[in-house]
């Protein structure tokens, strides 16, 4: 695996909010605590030192029980130790891990724990995968793409996806020992995901947490009660959102009066003002889930995608309300993976990664324009024509003022005619370069399947099948504190 990196800004594919956050622009500094730098973890550790001993004990017990339920030993960590801290990423329970970026999130988190261990050897750092077991958006996780095929699970089950049983899970024809074992042994989707994530990353120290647990929710109960009974969070989030939008940033989430659901055996029901619920059955929505995470974990940092970083920045006020330290936010690593053949083809065609990030029409036109020996636009002719037409308009008006309109009409007709001619010349040149254009578009489709970023579409099995060390190589390649885009060649 070889690679090179590109600045986010050079690809024109990342939001201004993310770029400004990473640059630590002064206007944003009130929306988070410590910034995304290794040196800032010293202060973050101090802030999290107050994490309650009793909460550590409950967390350790819950994790040990969850691993015992799948017949596995939890990675050798003791979260009861006051010098042990977590760094966390979270994601939905995609079948077969879903798209590549789920793997990238996990690898980024593991590598952050490793970097912290080197920088702060007196503490222990544990990478945690927060399993979004209470999520109910099944359509977002019920499929994956590999080798040009969509594999999908359809079911009538509803509610928290982590509780789904596997009795109607389809037979996936892709043979893989890890997934075969997970989907044959796991009784629920939560167990399946823990089994395969433990097989893939347990040896790297990854701990998988299912927060759909009554003991853990008891730690968060006072905050959920305040949300349900006093609706304390919506005004704070709304005010923060308005401030971000006034600065010109796009926001991701909107708080409700009540930011909770009720979990039943087969449903997840939104709660409204005036409702009641047993706290063990309450489920935080996207507004309260980050706060829930930080209440039950001795956590220092959250690693997420651009949208996650954006919505966390809307939430600092509710952390301040409950005096919970706000974690350091880090974007996950981003990458595109090419085969050697694809890399050679891109080089031969003179295509940069920035070129491939443009839309198909822009890519095709810029490629043709860059290779032609002909002048394909008529801008210079239009520019030369303007003073001639202006002179004619003046002469015609001097003879008869009504003739000026005729000249202006001719001017518009000639302008449109030249523009049509330019389009015809460009299409003709595209036909002349037809073979190369088809190669460009084929490469674009291979690396951006269905018009999506590869990492948001393709499953990692496409690469690990021929490159068994794919994940190990990623662990050696990604730097979670290098905020650039990785262009990888296998």
From TrEMBL:
<dbReference type="Pfam" id="PF10079">
    <property type="entry name" value="Rossmann-like_BshC"/>
</dbReference>
<protein>
    <recommendedName>
        <fullName>Putative cysteine ligase BshC</fullName>
        <ecNumber>6.-.-.-</ecNumber>
    </recommendedName>
</protein>
<keyword id="KW-0436">Ligase</keyword>
<dbReference type="InterPro" id="IPR055398">
    <property type="entry name" value="Rossmann-like_BshC"/>
</dbReference>
<feature type="domain" description="Bacillithiol biosynthesis BshC C-terminal coiled-coil">
    <location>
        <begin position="337"/>
        <end position="488"/>
    </location>
</feature>
<dbReference type="InterPro" id="IPR011199">
    <property type="entry name" value="Bacillithiol_biosynth_BshC"/>
</dbReference>
<comment type="similarity">
    <text>Belongs to the BshC family.</text>
</comment>
<dbReference type="InterPro" id="IPR055399">
    <property type="entry name" value="CC_BshC"/>
</dbReference>
<feature type="domain" description="Bacillithiol biosynthesis BshC N-terminal Rossmann-like">
    <location>
        <begin position="11"/>
        <end position="274"/>
    </location>
</feature>
<feature type="coiled-coil region">
    <location>
        <begin position="411"/>
        <end position="438"/>
    </location>
</feature>
<keyword id="KW-0175">Coiled coil</keyword>
<feature type="domain" description="Bacillithiol biosynthesis BshC N-terminal Rossmann-like">
    <location>
        <begin position="283"/>
        <end position="333"/>
    </location>
</feature>
<dbReference type="Pfam" id="PF24850">
    <property type="entry name" value="CC_BshC"/>
</dbReference>
